[in-house]
C-alpha cells in the first residue's frame, strides 16, 4: 500500500506539471497583457509598449516565460494583477470562500448518491425507485443558474417565513460588518445561513448524476456470483448488501466523483454569480476575464488543476482500500 501510494503521488506530480504547461500555453495564446492600452485615447507611444514588454518579459521565448512563471508559483508567487496587487494574496481568501462550499457540497452529494443509489438498486422498479429516478433526471435537466435562482427566490422565502425570521440568506457569504459587533458563534451561524443555499444548489445537481452511477454499479454487484454465494451461505441480506456489495459498488462512484471536481468548480462560478459570493468564480469572471488579466486566469486555472489532480490521487488511494487487488497493479 505504501509503495502504491508513492507511485501515484509521483504520477500526480508529472500530471500537474503537464497541466501547468498546458494552462500557461493556452493563456499565453489567449491573453495579451498590453491589450487594455491599445484602446486608450490618446494611445501611448511605441516606446511605452517596448518598455512594458521588456518589463513583463514578453520579449523572451515561450519556454523562458513558462519557467519564470512556474518558478515563481513554486515559491508562492503567482504574479501581480493589472492593478499591481499580488495574485497569491487574493487567491487565498477567495479559495477559502469557494472551498468550504465545494467540500461540503461533495460530502452531501456523495452521501445522498450512495443512499439513493443503493435504495434504487435494492428496490428496483418499485415506486421509490421510480420516484428517485424522476427526481434525478429532473435535477440533471435543470440549468445551474435556474436551479440556484429557484432556491434563492422560493426556498429561502418559505423557510424564513416558517421561522419568522431570516434564517437563510441569498446574498454574499456573510453579513457585511458583522465581525465588528458579533461574537464567534454568531458569526459562524451567520456564515452557515449564507452557506446553505449555494451548497444545496451544487450538491443536488451533482448528486443527481452520481446517484445514477451508484444505482447502476449496485445492480451489477447484486447480480454477481459472489453475492449469490454469500446469500447461499445463509448471511443476512442486509449484511450481504452493505458488507460485500456496497464496498465493490463504490469503486465506479469514486471515479465519477474524482472526475466531477472540475465540473463542480465550473458550477461554482455560476453559483457564486447568482448568490453574489466573492469566491474563486467571481474572481475569475470579474478580475480575470473581465479585466483581461492573464495572471488571475493562470492562478485560477492552476488552483483548479491542483484540486482535480489531488482528488484523483485520493480516488486512486481509495481504489486500493476498496479493492486490495488494485495495489498489485
Automatic annotation (TrEMBL):
<comment type="similarity">
    <text>Belongs to the binding-protein-dependent transport system permease family.</text>
</comment>
<feature type="transmembrane region" description="Helical">
    <location>
        <begin position="101"/>
        <end position="122"/>
    </location>
</feature>
<feature type="transmembrane region" description="Helical">
    <location>
        <begin position="249"/>
        <end position="277"/>
    </location>
</feature>
<dbReference type="InterPro" id="IPR045621">
    <property type="entry name" value="BPD_transp_1_N"/>
</dbReference>
<dbReference type="Pfam" id="PF19300">
    <property type="entry name" value="BPD_transp_1_N"/>
</dbReference>
<feature type="transmembrane region" description="Helical">
    <location>
        <begin position="297"/>
        <end position="322"/>
    </location>
</feature>
<dbReference type="Pfam" id="PF00528">
    <property type="entry name" value="BPD_transp_1"/>
</dbReference>
<protein>
    <submittedName>
        <fullName>ABC transporter permease</fullName>
    </submittedName>
</protein>
<feature type="domain" description="ABC transmembrane type-1">
    <location>
        <begin position="95"/>
        <end position="319"/>
    </location>
</feature>
<dbReference type="InterPro" id="IPR035906">
    <property type="entry name" value="MetI-like_sf"/>
</dbReference>
<feature type="transmembrane region" description="Helical">
    <location>
        <begin position="192"/>
        <end position="210"/>
    </location>
</feature>
<keyword id="KW-0472">Membrane</keyword>
<dbReference type="InterPro" id="IPR000515">
    <property type="entry name" value="MetI-like"/>
</dbReference>
<keyword id="KW-0813">Transport</keyword>
<keyword id="KW-0812">Transmembrane</keyword>
<keyword id="KW-1133">Transmembrane helix</keyword>
<feature type="transmembrane region" description="Helical">
    <location>
        <begin position="134"/>
        <end position="151"/>
    </location>
</feature>
<keyword id="KW-1003">Cell membrane</keyword>
Amino acid at each position: 500500500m505504501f509503495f502504491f501510494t508513492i507511485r501515484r503521488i509521483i504520477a500526480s506530480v508529472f500530471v500537474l506539471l503537464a497541466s501547468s504547461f498546458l494552462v500557461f500555453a493556452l493563456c499565453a495564446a489567449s491573453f495579451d497583457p498590453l491589450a487594455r492600452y491599445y484602446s486608450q485615447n490618446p494611445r501611448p507611444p511605441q516606446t511605452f509598449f517596448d518598455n512594458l514588454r521588456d518589463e513583463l518579459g514578453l520579449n523572451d521565448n515561450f519556454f523562458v516565460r513558462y519557467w519564470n512563471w512556474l518558478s515563481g508559483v513554486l515559491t508562492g508567487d503567482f504574479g501581480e494583477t493589472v492593478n499591481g496587487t499580488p495574485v497569491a494574496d487574493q487567491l487565498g481568501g477567495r479559495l477559502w470562500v469557494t472551498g468550504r462550499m465545494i467540500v461540503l457540497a461533495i460530502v452531501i452529494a456523495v452521501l445522498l448518491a450512495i443512499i439513493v443509489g443503493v435504495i434504487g438498486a435494492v428496490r428496483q422498479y418499485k415506486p421509490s425507485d421510480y420516484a428517485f429516478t424522476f427526481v434525478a433526471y429532473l435535477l440533471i435537466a435543470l440549468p445551474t443558474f435556474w436551479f440556484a435562482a429557484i432556491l434563492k427566490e422560493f426556498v429561502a422565502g418559505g423557510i424564513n417565513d416558517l421561522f419568522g425570521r431570516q434564517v437563510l440568506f441569498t446574498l454574499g457569504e456573510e453579513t457585511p460588518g458583522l465581525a465588528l459587533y458579533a461574537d464567534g458563534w454568531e458569526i459562524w451561524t451567520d456564515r452557515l445561513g449564507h452557506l446553505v443555499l449555494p451548497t444545496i444548489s451544487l450538491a443536488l445537481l451533482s448528486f443527481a448524476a452520481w446517484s445514477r452511477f451508484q444505482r447502476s454499479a449496485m445492480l451489477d454487484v447484486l447480480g454477481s456470483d459472489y453475492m449469490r454465494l454469500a446469500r447461499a451461505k445463509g448471511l443476512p441480506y442486509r449484511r450481504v448488501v452493505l458488507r460485500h456489495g456496497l464496498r465493490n459498488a463504490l469503486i465506479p462512484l469514486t471515479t465519477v466523483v474524482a472526475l466531477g471536481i472540475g465540473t463542480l468548480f465550473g458550477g461554482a462560478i455560476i453559483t457564486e454569480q447568482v448568490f453574489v459570493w466573492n469566491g474563486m468564480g467571481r474572481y475569475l469572471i470579474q478580475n480575470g476575464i473581465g479585466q483581461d488579466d492573464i495572471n488571475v486566469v493562470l492562478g485560477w486555472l492552476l488552483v483548479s488543476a491542483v484540486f482535480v489532480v489531488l482528488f484523483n490521487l485520493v480516488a486512486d488511494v481509495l481504489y486500493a482500500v476498496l479493492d486490495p487487488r488494485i495495489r498489485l497493479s
